[in-house]
Amino acid sequence: MIETMGSLTASPWIYVLVAVSVLLDVFLPVLPSGVLVISGAAAAAAAAGGSPARVPDVALLLAVAATASVLGDMAAYRLALRSGPRLDRVIARSRRLTRAHERLGTALARGGGLLVVLARFAPAGRSVVSLGAGKTRRKVGEFLPWSVLAGISWASYSVALGYFGTQWLGTAWLGTAVSTVALFAAGSLAAVLLRRPSPTPAAAA
């Protein structure tokens, strides 16, 4: 399996797999999009300085991952924007979704869309935020800039983990493993921060 992953990350197909995985994981959060990005960056680091010709380019990998992230966000946003009562009923049945959508609306209304960036790192947080932005009918201009920032931040973090982790540790498989743990740790921290209650208007003042 390691050999298969190695041959995959050393071919142009890694860009296609990263794009599709990142694009779709807003609907299927179980897809290993972050692991694919890390693996591609790790392969680039391991092959630097005497590598085969077909190896991921770090800048292109970052651009593909960030662009696919934004496109996936906007697809979920548009879907929720045009959805009918069924999605309303799903949200109403989930206290977690209801709270998340309320917090998102408040954050965007105040111009503080850092919640969108934070949610990009949390498990399923991207799905909740993108669907919530569409369902609460936030304007594209309120949501899109924060989605772009979130995509760039997440892609940059994932690529940096894979690339510099492999350079530091010396081997691609170890760099990928340690970087994946670091990515999940960041996701867990983001999830904890997202669960914290929003400050009340009195406290904020």
What does this structure look like?
- There is one protein chain.
- The termini are far apart.
- The longest helix is centred in the C-terminal third of the chain and has 30 residues, at 140-169.
- By secondary structure, the chain is mainly α.
- Helix 2 packs antiparallel against helix 3 (33-47).
- It is elongated, with a radius of gyration of 18 Å.
- Helices cover 78% and strands 0% of the residues.
- The chain has helices at residues 2-9, 13-24, 33-47, 58-81, 85-93, 95-109, 114-121, 125-135, 140-169, 172-195, 201-204.
- It contains 11 helices and no strands.
- Residues 42-163 form the VTT domain.
- It is a multi-pass membrane protein.
- It is found in: Cell membrane.
